[in-house]
Amino acid sequence: MLFCGCVSKAKAQARAQQAYLAGQNAALRRQQAEAEAQAPGVTVVGPVQYPDVPWVEGLTLAQAVATANYLGQHDPKEIIITRQGESAKLAPKMLLNGADVPLEPGDIITIHE
Which of 22, 25, 59, 110 is deepest in the core (most CB within 10 A)? Predict the structure, then answer.
């Protein structure tokens, strides 16, 4: 009995299809990872050491200010969050008393002393 290492045309096409789909999935995963890595962070304007805060899921205002390393001589007098062109003023006492605000990628936080 002679066995041949031949593969049927249908099996060859199925393997080629699987390889193609695996390559496509890998490319999509790579693109998604790159997009997430390039997601805009949060910018903190004011007396801070690190104005560009990288985005992480669940980032809050207190975390962003701490990460930016606030260098002001006094407690802030005003904090403004700008999101998609709209601004909201916050009383810094609210933040100092433990209330916190969730942030979104691209938010700009302005701290006035």
Answer: 59
Q: Do residues 13 and 77 make contact, with C-beta atoms less than 8 angstroms apart?
A: no
What pLDDT, in 10s, does the model give residues 56-79?
Answer: 999 999 999 999 999 988 888 999
Taking the whole predicted model, whether its pTM rises above 0.85 is answered as no
Task: Decide if 42 contacts 103 (C-beta within 8 A).
Answer: yes
Q: Residue 34: what pLDDT?
A: 64
Number of domains in the chain: 2
The whole domain housing 106 covers 42-112
Print the SS3 string covering 18-60.
HHHHHHHHHHHHHHHHHHHHCCCCEEEECCECCCEECCCCCCE
- Per DSSP, the residues of 3-15 read ------HHHHHHH
